[in-house]
Every structure is written in C-alpha cells, then in structure tokens.
Prior knowledge:
The chain is α+β, with helices and mostly antiparallel strands.
Amino acid sequence: MGMEKVSGERKKRRVRQKKKKLSVVQKLYDTCREVFADCGPGVVPSVEGIERLKHILNGITTSDVGVSPNMPYFKVKETSTFPKITYLHLSQCDKFSIGIFLLPPSGVLPLHNHPQMTVFSKLLFGTMHIKAYDWVDDGATVSTPEADLSKGEVTPVSVRLAKLKVNSAFTAPCNTSILYPTDGGNMHCFTAITSCAVLDVLGPPYCDPEGRHCQYYRTHPFTCFSVDDKKLPDGEKIEDHAWLEEIDKPASLSVVAAMYNGPKIVEK
Length: 268
C-alpha cells in the first residue's frame, strides 16, 4: 500500500508539472479562443475578456516569444526608402490572429485602419512613436478642391475628418494598448525610434472578402480645407484634428514574412 501511495503521488506531481510547463504563447492562444469565441466583426469582447488578455499580454517578455534586438532583421543597410519590416506569424483563424512586427530603427508602418476590429498591441522592446486617430463624424466623406502644384491645377480630393487620440513615444516595458472598432485610435501609424518588436492580437483579422481591407491614409491639416458644415465644437483644438485621404498602399512600405522560431502553439 505504501509503494502504491508513493507511485500515485508521483503521477499527480507529473501532471502538475505538465500543466506548469504550458507556454505563455499557448496561454495567449487558448485565452484568445475563449475571449473571441462569441465575437465577430464590430463586436467588442466582454470587459472580463479584455482584462484577461491584457493581463497575459502585459506579462509577456521577449524570451516568451523568442525575439531579441540582436536578430538579423534589425540590421539596416543605408537606403533612400523606409527600411524593411518583418512579420512573424504565430496563429490565425477566422476569429483572431496573433503575430509580431519587427521594426528596425526608422521603420514605419504608415497610417492605416482596423475595420470592425479590436486590436491588442504589446511593445516587447524598443522605443516607438505612435500617432492614432478616430473618426469624428457620421462616416461621410467630403470632396474638396486641392491644388496640384506639379500640374498647376486644382483637383477634387475626398477626405474625412478625424480626431487625434494618441501622439506619443512609448518605451518598453509598457502596458498593452487597445484600439476598438470606433474608439481608442483605430487608425494608427507606428514609427520605430529604436529597434522594436510589437506583438499584435487582432480580433477578427483582416479579410478582404468580408470587407476588412487594410486601408492606408494621407493626413491633411484641418486648415487645408474649408467645409461649411464641418466646424469644431467649442474647446476643441485645430491641431488635434486632421483630414484623412484614402490612398493606395505606399510603394515604400515593405513587410516580409519570416519564420517564427519561438515556443510553438498547439492550435485546436
């Protein structure tokens, strides 16, 4: 009986050890499956679900995902264009995606949107400047004239008014930032001041067939255009507003995929 009791305790101990060995990225994946299970385009997870994901992401370190500033992706050659950005794919399904952007110094992810998405971004290392906007109107675009100095003529430009929500530099370690379908800076631009790694969780992910296309924008100062029914409320600052113009993906933007070599995720 004594030997059987010892053997049983050893088995229990092994089971406990296996549970303890569950990687952080596996916990992140499992939590994403639960949090986004009942969500869809435009549906924000519950407050409890958001807090669960924030708690995990806030505690994630570079060793948990196998990245460091010494990786070759951060060695930049002199170039007249923005340096290449690397993307490490961890997991994706129709409900969410998990990935890591590696930005070398001066790397830029131009201003772009996240249609109908809730996005969690965790800066793993480095210093990054983030500039983010939200729409301030009912979604209507206005066509306004703009002078094309190269051609000496005036052409119409379709723009939409947005309000600046974030315009700051962040240095790791820092808390996870969250943007929502209509709030929190849904359209943002990342500029790497030093080598940076950003872990992103998108729910749901981009999907062109479902209308979740990654749209890029050019900003125009508020004073560039005069629109009769677009006046700022009392107390609002002009410098906190801009007109956004939809543009094609910038030719200078180069994002390439690379193999993720960190702890593996067992997808279910």
